[in-house]
Design a protein that fits this description.
The complex is a heterotetramer of chains A (150), B (125), C (246) and D (87). With 125 residues, chain B is mainly alpha-helical. Chain B has four helices and no strands. With 246 residues, chain C is an all-alpha fold. The longest helix of chain C has 29 residues, at 211-239. Chain C is globular, with a radius of gyration of 23 Å. The interface between B and C is large, with 53 and 63 residues. Chain B: This is Dehydrogenase. Chain B: Keywords: Cell membrane, Membrane, Transmembrane, Transmembrane helix.
Chain lengths: 150, 125, 246, 87
């Protein structure tokens, strides 16, 4: 076991543990926030695993999660807009912390990889992850003001 | 020494036990469900147990994926690709079967105005 | 049967099943063991045919006939959904009014949609090289289209997604798989045998004989199937209303 | 100790499966299923099956939740409609 896998284990244990607790209990708003955080915390874990196993092809997994995770959150934000409008879930502290974690992991991995095609891919994953995460947070707190049915 | 062998014994069967547990939990949810959409979700949980079992059978300690686009063939031990191929198609086909069951649920809701299996039984009997 | 008796039955049956499963688990070969005879042979066969991703080789070459079965299940499930979720006689269509979406959400959807589509195509195209393939890429590409519904509104989605075209695409790609299989027979081999085309250079896009073609057919099939499926569900959830006439 | 990450992923999957069954409201269950899909993708990655992980991510993170939520919406709208007409 090398340091990368150890770091990934810690990130995944903390990330999956907190999201399990957040998504299974409490009001609906908190659950959607937890679902969004699961993307933001698992994706850096996958990137660290890819580095730990020394397999660049595993980065595809992180790319797909960074793309589709926020889409999943948008599904809930849109189809539960009525319920969420009452709660207006806000967790900007947590969201920025998770986005920061993603940015730090991507920066460290870029520094290790060095310039090249894999670095471009890492930067795309990072941009999609941070952007999607912040946007999904925005969407669930009043992103669909006029959705009554449609 | 004794505790160490106990730990390895646990890690040697833990994945199988988790697969069995996930399957049983899904079955329990299916049997006690009061909402057909919830029951379909429980069936999805049962399906995921089969993925865990198949992939656990194919794992090899210290192995890596049998995908040679970024490593030289033969340079590292690889895990079993056959079970992975089985699981891979299973995941996507499982999702469409879930969709088919949800379509049936929507149709039941239209016909009978409820998705509670107990109320449906009363309607019929 | 009252719920209490049913619960007891479940606990009894589940307990018995649990005991049997645990007994079976304890007798299975240990997790992570070194003995994988089928796996080792599959890897050797894949390398002999210049396919870098052994899983794609198993799916589209060594067990291509099984994949045809999976494809048939997929096709039948979609057909079932289309039949079940058609517009009934006592229902009418009521197009939803365009909805208001916050500007950043709309912009995000419009930026990410092409990226997700390209990623889906990339995953399909590199199926026989890196992790990925028709099954995964097809789902990604089809999901990407529905960002139009999530980020804009239903009318916008309907403009970029003609369902009839995707229904035809579904049927065409399913038959393309069969045609490729029969081409093997006509060339003097067996059904779906990978003897038709040269194997090419290892680890390039065109390597692996018929594997990239079958992979592309499955990718198109899955993408069209998912689009058709979601279109039926969206119709029901958003547009079709009860009661005849409006 | 090399299997620590496997054990973490297995425990997360078991916990999320329990939560998915225990949440009886379909919308809340769909949220748990979305996270369960992500956890399964992590498990498949640590079991060295990136292809299956990709498949699970593609299906579990957006497609299954969308299907379930659309069904929930249809069923809820129907029952709301039925109550209106009864009144």
């Amino acid at each position: 076991m090398n340091g990368w896998i150890l770091a990934a284990t810690v990130v995944l244990a903390v990330g999956l543990g907190t999201t399990l607790w957040g998504v299974a209990t409490g009001p609906l708003g908190r659950r959607v926030v937890a679902q969004n955080l699961s993307t933001a915390l698992v994706c850096p874990g996958l990137l660290l695993l890819s580095q730990g196993y020394d397999r660049t092809s595993y980065v595809d997994l992180a790319l797909l999660l960074a793309l589709l995770g926020p889409v999943g959150t948008l599904v809930f934000a849109r189809l539960l807009a009525d319920e969420l409008a009452e709660e207006q879930p806000r967790a900007w502290g947590l969201t920025w912390a998770a986005a920061g974690l993603g940015a730090v992991v991507v920066a460290v991995l870029c520094a290790v990889t060095g310039p090249g095609r894999s670095m471009v891919k890492l930067l795309i994953v990072g941009a999609l992850l941070v952007g999607g995460n912040l946007l999904a947070s925005r969407a669930m707190s009043g992103g669909f003001p006029g959705v009554s049915r449609g | 020494m004794g505790s160490e062998s106990a730990v390895t014994a646990v890690t040697h069967v833990l994945p199988y036990l988790v697969a069995a547990y996930v399957f049983l939990v899904g079955c329990y949810g299916l049997a006690t469900s009061r909402n057909l959409i919830h029951a379909v979700g429980c069936l999805a949980v049962c399906q995921s147990a089969t993925y865990v079992l198949l992939l656990a059978v194919g794992y090899r300690d210290g192995g890596t994926a049998p995908v040679f686009s970024d490593i030289r063939p033969g340079s590292r031990p690889v895990v079993d690709p056959v079970v992975q191929a089985l699981t891979l198609t299973d995941v996507v086909v499982g999702a469409t079967v879930t969709a088919l069951l949800l379509a049936l649920t929507v149709q039941i809701a239209k016909r009978h105005g409820t998705v509670d299996p107990d109320e449906l039984r009363e309607l019929r009997g | 049967m009252n719920p209490r008796a049913r619960l007891w039955l479940v606990v009894l049956g589940g307990g018995g099943l649990a005991a049997l499963l645990v007994a079976a688990c304890l007798r299975l070969p240990a997790f992570g063991g070194p003995w994988h005879p089928y796996g080792d042979r599959a890897v050797r066969a894949a390398l002999a045919r210049h396919i870098a991703n052994t899983i794609a080789s198993v799916n589209f070459d060594q067990r291509a006939f099984d994949t045809m079965g999976e494809m048939t299940i997929l096709f039948a499930a979609v057909l079932g959904c289309v039949v079940l979720l058609r517009q009934a006689r006592d229902e009418h269509r009521d197009p939803p009014e365009p909805c208001e979406v916050a500007a950043p959400v709309r912009r995000y959807a419009l930026v990410v949609l092409p990226i997700a589509l390209v990623t889906g195509l990339y995953v399909i195209a590199h199926g026989q090289l890196s992790p990925g393939g028709g099954f995964q890429g097809g789902v990604v590409a089809a999901t990407a289209l529905h960002l139009m519904y999530l980020g804009a509104d239903y009318a916008a989605l309907e403009r970029i997604r003609p369902v009839e075209a995707f229904e035809i695409g579904d049927a065409l790609s399913a038959s393309a798989y069969l045609v490729l299989g029969f081409a093997g027979v006509l060339a003097g081999g067996a059904f779906l045998a990978n003897t038709l085309l040269p194997y090419g250079t290892f680890n390039t896009l065109s390597s692996g004989g018929t594997v990239p073609l079958l992979n592309a057919a499955i990718g198109m099939e899955v993408a069209s199937a998912v689009v058709v499926l979601l279109a039926r569900f969206l119709d029901q959830a958003v547009e079709i209303e009860e009661g005849s006439g409006s | 100790m090399a299997d620590a990450v496997v054990v973490v992923a297995l425990l997360a999957v078991a916990g999320l499966a329990t939560a998915a069954v225990a949440n009886r409201d379909p919308a809340r269950q769909a949220l748990v299923l979305a996270v369960l899909g992500t956890a399964l993708a992590v498990l498949f990655t640590v079991l060295q099956a990136p292809d299956v992980g990709l498949s699970q991510l593609a299906v579990g993170s957006a497609l299954t939740p969308l299907l379930i939520m659309l069904s929930v919406r249809k069923v809820r709208r129907r029952s709301a409609h039925g109550k209106d007409s009864k009144q």
